[in-house]
Amino acid sequence: MQNDVVSYFLDLVAIDSESRKERDLVDKLKKDLEELGAIVEEDDCGLKFDGNAGNLYAYFPGVINKKPILLCAHSDTVVPGKGIKPTIENGRIFTDGTTVLGGDDKSGIAEILMAIKQIKDKGIAHPPIEVVITVSEEIGLLGAKNFDISKLQAAFGYALDTHQVGEVVIGAPSQNSLQINFYGKEAHAGVEPEKGLNAICLAAEAITAMPNGRIDFETTCNIGIIQGGSATNIVPKEVLVKGEARSHNKGKLQKVCEEIEQVVISTVKKFNANGAKASFHFELKEEYEAFLISRNAPVVALAEKALQNLHLPADIKVGGGGSDANIFNAKGLPTIIVGTGMNNVHTTDEDILVDELYRGTAFVEELIRLYTEE
Ligand SMILES: [Zn+2]
If phi over 0 gives left and psi between -120 and 50 gives alpha, with beta otherwise, what is residue 37? Predict the structure, then answer.
């Protein structure tokens, strides 16, 4: 295993790990965590969603008798993430523009493992440390949702999975996903269009009338996918529409989803006013629950103190995205999200500064050190 976080990060980036295809990376991490002295278990959650690897749970025994501290990151990257070719120039690591960099979340993994390595190399006494590396986070927090959190003994945790080092995310919204099938009737578009019922027109009218974008300061919704039709000379009989809604307020989330459903019902009704037989199927799924941790909670105070000791400004905020922290918090383990230096994530312009990798590692090391002392 490397001694330097930048070399180690580059090693991790060289191993492809798009969601569901994380086997090679998980094998390497298992080996590295063991080399650092952890007892490592891999679960079989991948079987449930066609992934080729499971979540890693690593336990580092400590010499200080205290509950463990939890550090967590995810092993998958978004697409395009195959054959990543990183370049370092002027202290910045970036790709050739054909793939993402995978700093989301390999910067988090590298910083956790290197910080623990430094603690070990320096012989610093520490309490037990738990590390969880989840799989398939990017496609709906699948690893975390299927992880047996009851095995965790930690007092609280840190998910290393947001932008600049110093960013501390103490809250995140709930999210519902929506799937709507609109059904019309197929007919030859040139010969007898009168016999058809155009499902694309039906969906278009409904989507136009739906709430969309930013609803208020804590609520958003979006239609992101539309699929339908098979040929220009056929009146389309079916359209699939997929979207999502998020809110930090559960009541508002429910309200905006009900409004969307109401629009679907009334639009179909309008199409059927003169005897047509349009129909729909509306499906709502609760993806994850919102959380908000008090600024004074020990998990936040420790992060703030660690940043202060390193003379890094703390940027404490409430986020807009879901992460493994939503799942851990919903199951009763206070977990906040902290920055790793990752930048422009989920794009082929993704990059990270070398200095941020060093700062992120120092931050994790300081978290462990402070937790030991307090
Ligand atoms: Zn991530």
Answer: left
Give the global pTM. 0.90
76 is an active site residue: yes
How many Cβ atoms are within 10 Å of 249's Cβ, its own excluded? Answer: 15
Q: Residues with Cβ within 5 Å of ion ligand 1?
A: 104-105, 161
* pLDDT tens-place string over residues 184-221: 999 999 999 999 999 999 999 999 999 999 999 999 99
* Answer CATH for 174-288 from 3.30.70.330, 3.40.47.40, 3.30.70.360, 3.90.25.10: 3.30.70.360
Tokens of 41: 């278990």
CA of 112 to the centre of ligand 1 (A): 14
- Residue 221 C-alpha to ligand 1 middle, in angstroms? 21
Location of structure tokens 């199409």? 271
Place of tokens 């027109």: 201
Average pLDDT for residues 42-65, to the nearest whole number? 97
Q: Is 137 a catalytic residue?
A: yes
137, 138, 350, 356: the catalytic one is: 137
Q: What is the pLDDT of residue 1?
A: 85
